[in-house]
Amino acid sequence: MTRNFKFFSLTLYILIALLSVPQVCTGNEEFNTWLAGLRAEAIAEGISADTLDLALRDLKPIPRVIELDRNQPESKLSYRSYQKRVVTETRIKKGAQMLDTHRELLESIKDRYGVQPRFLVAIWGLETNFGTYKGTFPVISAVATLAHDARRSSFFRRELLHSLRIIDEGHIGIADMLGSWAGAMGQLQFMPSTFTQLAVDEDNDGRKDIWHSLPDVFGSASNFLSSYGWMPGYTWGRQVRLPQTFNNDLIGTDTNKSLSEWQESGVRRHNGEDLPDADISASLIQPSGSDGPSFLVYQNYKAILRWNRSHLYAMAVCRLADRIVYRASLNNIVQNSSKVVQ
C-alpha cells in the first residue's frame, strides 16, 4: 500500500510538472518532458516550487557544454612537464603575497581545522588562480545539459538536484551561480554534491558562499581536507632515494609502512640521509614511473588526492605549497632587513 501511494504521488508530481512545462521555453519537447520529470523529482525531495520556477524557467541545453565534454584533451604530460606548467614563478610569487595578505584569517582557520595555510593557498591558486577565474558557465544550465545527455546522465542528474538545493537554501543566487562547463563552482571549484556535503558558513552570515567569501572559501577547503583525515602538525611527505634492489610491489598508496620500516628497506632522503625519526606511516609513489622521482607521502597527501585523484595534481599542490611558504619567508627576511637599514 505504501509503495503504491509513493508511486501515485510521484506520478501526480510529474503530471503537475508537465502542466508547468509551457513556462520552460526551450523549443525542445523532448527536453521539456525530461525537465518535467526532473522537476517532479526535485519537488519530491523537498525543493520548493518557487525555486524551481526561477531556476528552470527558460532553461535550455548549452551545445558548447556537450562539445567540451566530447572533446576533452587527453593529458599526456610527464611529471616534470606538468609541474613546470602549473608551479610557475608567477604563481609562487602571487601565492606568497596572498599568504601574507590573508595571514590572520588563514591562521584562524588553521586553529579551527588544523590545515596549514600554505596548502589552502596552493589549492586556491591551482583551482582558480587565487579566485580570479571561477568559470563563466551558469551552473544550473551546464549541469542540466549533462544530466539530459545520455553519456553521464545519472551522475549529473544527482549534481543538478544538489545545485537546485543550494539555491533553495539561499546560499547563492541563480545569476551568481557560475562555474566550469562541468559544474565545478566557486573559488574552490567544488562540485554541487561536494558543496552540500562539505562547504561551511565560516563567516556566520547564514550562507555558504565559496564564490565571494574568503572565510567560507578557506573554511570549506579545510573542512574538506580534515574530513579525509588531515593530520595537523605534519607535512605532506618528501622526495626519497631507493636502493638499487627494491621491491616494486611496495609502490602505491595501498601500501602503508612506518618510516622506520621504510628505513629498514633501504629508503633514504633524497640527499642520502636517514629518514626522519617520526611516528608516522607513509606510502611510496612514483608519479611518472620508475624513471622519475620517488616520494614517501603521508596522510595529508592522501587527503589532497581526494580533492583531485591525480598524483600530478596532488604533487603540484604540495610543491606549490612548499615553494609559497619558502618565498614568503624570504620576503619577510628582505622586509625585516629593509627596516633595519632604515
Explain how this protein is built:
With 342 residues, the chain is of the alpha+beta class. Among the domains are: 14-68 and 136-198, Orthogonal Bundle (Helicase, Ruva Protein, domain 3); 237-297, no CATH class. It is built from 15 helices and 7 strands. The strands form 2 sheets. Strands 4-6-7-3-5 form a 5-stranded antiparallel β-sheet. Strands 1-2 form a two-stranded antiparallel sheet.
Provide key terms for this protein.
globular; 8% strand; two-stranded antiparallel sheet; 55% helix; single chain; 7 strands; 342 residues; alpha+beta; 5-stranded antiparallel sheet; Helicase, Ruva Protein, domain 3
Question: What topology does this entry show?
Answer:
Layout: H1 2-20, H2 29-44, H3 49-56, H4 63-70, H5 79-86, H6 89-101, H7 103-113, H8 117-128, E1 137-138, H9 139-148, H10 153-168, E2 178-179, H11 192-198, H12 214-227, E3 237-241, E4 252-258, H13 259-264, E5 268-269, E6 281-285, E7 294-297, H14 299-307, H15 311-341
Antiparallel strand pairs: 1-2, 3-5, 3-7, 4-6, 6-7
Helix pairs in contact: 1-2, 5-15, 6-8, 6-15, 7-12, 8-15, 9-10, 10-11, 12-14, 14-15
Provide a brief overview of the structure:
This protein is of the alpha+beta class and 342 residues long.
Rg, please? Answer: 24 Å
For the biggest β-sheet, the strand order reads: 4-6-7-3-5
Low-confidence stretches: 14-27, 337-342
Mean pLDDT: 90
Assigned CATH class of the domain at 14-68 and 136-198: Mainly Alpha
- Pattern of helices and strands: HHHHHHHHEHHEHHEEHEEEHH
If you consult CATH, what is the topology of the domain at 14-68 and 136-198?
Helicase, Ruva Protein, domain 3
Question: What's the architecture of the domain at 14-68 and 136-198, going by CATH?
Answer: Orthogonal Bundle
Please give the largest β-sheet: 5 strands, antiparallel
**Strand residue content:** 5-15%
Q: What structural class results from the helix and strand content? A: alpha+beta
Helix proportion: 40-55%
Ends distance: 85 Å
Shape: globular
